[in-house]
Amino acid sequence: KPEELLGCPVPDVVGGEVYANVQPYIARALAGEPVNFETRMPYGEEQLRYIRTSYVPDVQDGQTVGFYALISDVTEQVGARRQVEQREREAQALAGKLAAANADLVLANEQLKRTNTDLDNFVYTASHDLKAPILNVEGLLKALERQLGADLRGKETVRELYGMLYGSVNRFKATIGDLTEVARIGKESSEDVASLAVDAVLNEVRQDLAPQIAEAGATLEVSLDCPPLHFSRKNLKSILYNLLGNAVKYRSPDRPPRVRIACREEGAYQVLTVADNGLGMDMRQEHKIFALFKRLHAHVEGTGIGLYIVKRMIENAGGRIEVESQVGVGTTFRVYFRRGTLAD
Question: What range(s) does the Histidine kinase domain occupy (predicted)?
């Protein structure tokens, strides 16, 4: 009971250990100094509480004759504060780890950029330097052919050999051209970026592909009621040329080819869709669709570089390309242009 504590020595009330801890504060209070502090207070053998104590000196006639002690149990507040402090320490440690990881990513990204630049420069230089030798080979073949007599040139074996030699030269020239195109994408940035009407660029592509479209008997369904794109004209034309050309090239022999070209706005993107009812692709080989020099339909002539170029063009501009396909049904490509690339 409180009245039982009156007149008891302080060490008997609070215990010798606690008294030893608070004795310096008591001395300061008896010297006339207001004191505020927090300390631990054992209750029983296992329970520990935290208290906030204020000593207010009792000054009479200029002399400190004692002090008033105001005590509050702040165990819950101390526990909550320590949890906050612990979380702050954990957050700081995590922030340090994230900063270190980010620094590593920045360094790796810079190294990757340098590697890509070196690779683009190598491809560009190699493709340029290989043009002269292959042209020399082609010239030597023609010179040798002129030196052959009419009898030799007329032999079937000679004609077959020359056909294979010229075919190899032409394929090599095409590969060099493809490598040059890959290197061009890596070296170009925004030289010919302009505000483009997609339907106007598509009309140019349709004219370029008119013979193939007519030969295939393909029907085009176009719905391009969309804002202009702020994009590279050369690259947009290449994207449309590859996607439309593939839709015609890889048509099904079982039905007339039909190609649907449309656009819509979706979130942060303007989406260009090219869908066909052609041969379709096995999506289990999706990793090959945009890979360099990979082809899923070997019976049709091609180099396996077109979709790689398309993907790199759109990703260099901050967009992406997706594909859905089913064998025997058709293929749909969706090209996502960032809305930040739309003309105001």
Answer: 125-341
- For residue 153 the two structure tokens come to 């040139």
pLDDT for the residue 341? 46
In the chain, pLDDT over 70 holds for what percent of residues?
A: 85
Query: Above 60 in pLDDT, residue 22?
Result: yes
Q: What is the pLDDT of residue 120?
A: 66
pLDDT per residue over 266-283, tens digit each? 888 999 999 999 998 888
**Cα(110)–Cα(113) distance, rounded to whole angstroms?**
5
Query: 63 - beta bridge partners?
Result: 60
**Could you count the other beta carbons within 10 Å of the beta carbon of residue 157?**
8
Question: Rounded to an integer, what distance in angstroms lies between the CA atom of residue 142 and that of residue 144?
Answer: 5
Domains of the chain: 2-73 (no CATH), 98-187 (1.10.287.130), 193-341 (3.30.565.10)
The candidate with the shortest Cα–Cα distance to 216, out of 256, 168, 181, 183, is 256
Q: Under a CB-based contact definition with an 8 Å cutoff, are residues 259 and 276 in contact?
A: yes
How many CB atoms sit inside 10 A of residue 305's CB?
21
Which is more confident, 114 or 204?
204
Q: CA-CA distance, 92 to 324, in Å (whole number)?
A: 44
Mean pLDDT along residues 233-259: 91
Helix (H, G, I), strand (E, B) or coil at 290: coil
Reduced to 3 states (helix: H, G, I; strand: E, B; else coil), residue 230 is strand
Task: Output the six-digit token pair for 29.
Answer: 């209070």
Angle, nearest 10°, between helix axes 156-187 and 75-147? 150
Q: Of the candidates 309, 296, 295, which has an alpha carbon nearest to the alpha carbon of residue 180?
A: 309
Residue 16 pLDDT class (50, 70, 90 cuts): confident
